[in-house]
Every structure is written in C-alpha cells, then in structure tokens.
Specification:
With 158 residues, the chain is an alpha+beta fold. It is 24% helix and 37% strand. The strands form two sheets. The protein has a six-stranded antiparallel beta sheet, with no helix packed on it. It has a five-stranded mixed beta sheet with strand order 4-3-5-6-9, with no helix packed on it.
Length: 158
C-alpha cells in the first residue's frame, strides 16, 4: 500500500496583491461610472431648463376685493408651472372655486384656467379680460386674477 502525503505550503504570497489591485480597479470603475452618470444627468437638466426659459421671480399678493386689504403676500419662483387654487397640489393656496396656472412660456409668463371655470384678468387702467377654460393669455406685472370667494391675486414680476 502506497500513501501519498502532501505538504501544506499555505496561500500564495502574491495573492493578496492581486486582490488589492482588483478591488482598487473595481472602485475606480464604479467611481468613473457614477461620475459620468452624474455629469450626463446635470447636462440634461441644464438643457431642459434652457429650453423652458429662464426662471422668473414673482410676488403674489392675495387681496380681499371688498375692502382692498392685503390678506397675504408671497414671493415664489416661476420655473415652468405654478398652481394657484384651493386644492392640495396648489403652490399658492386661495380659498375660492377657481384654479389658475401660471406658466413660464417661451414668449413670457402666461395664465390659464385649470378647471372648467373661466377666469377674469383685471389689467391696469381698468380693463377686464375674460379668459375661457383652457385659453392661454400673457400676464403682465400688476395684473389681478379673480379667484372667486371675494378674493383676487395680484401678480408682480421682479
């Protein structure tokens, strides 16, 4: 009977070096991939913002129509769409039946009714403009939007 005995020499002394080199290479690859993804995403967002137009700073002043008193005043940024209304998704809450959307359109800020009710825009100089549901009308600084419930919102651009 022949018995074969092998000696245990231990692990290869160079094995740890290959493990470290492989780990570092993987980390460099992951860092490069994450950096590239972040750069591409930032560029896409920048291009989308450039297409939408620039960001406008505006002040919305909520007034009581009977007394003319200012109820609330708030400064907001108009990027692409700003909702004024009584719903949960409103950016500027008013207690009235109308929902109005301010948009940053290519030719300037505009307004439209967001529910089935038309809206009324009071321009400076006493001119009134009736806007049907879905119709888009440019807004000027100082225009007042009738939001119902005895209230109106004045739009001031800065």
């Amino acid at each position: 009977m022949v018995v074969v005995q092998t000696q245990a020499g231990g692990p290869d002394p160079w094995l740890w070096l290959w493990v470290v080199i492989g780990s570092l290479t993987g980390l460099v690859f992951v860092a490069f991939a994450v950096g590239r993804w972040t750069a591409v995403r930032r560029e896409r967002l920048r291009r989308a913002r450039a297409r939408e137009g620039h960001e406008l700073s505006l002040t919305l002043v909520l007034r009581d129509r009977l007394s003319g008193a200012v109820v609330r005043e708030e400064t907001l940024q108009l990027r692409d769409l700003l909702r004024i209304g009584a719903g949960e998704g409103a950016d500027f809450f008013v207690a009235g039946p109308y929902t109005v959307e301010l948009m940053n359109a290519a030719d300037g800020p505009a307004v439209r009714s967001a529910n089935l009710l038309g809206i009324e825009v009071h321009r400076q100089g006493g001119r009134r403009l009736s806007v049907a549901d879905g119709q888009v009308v440019r807004v000027q600084s100082g225009d007042r939007l009738d939001v119902g419930g005895g209230q109106e919102v004045e739009v001031r651009f800065q």
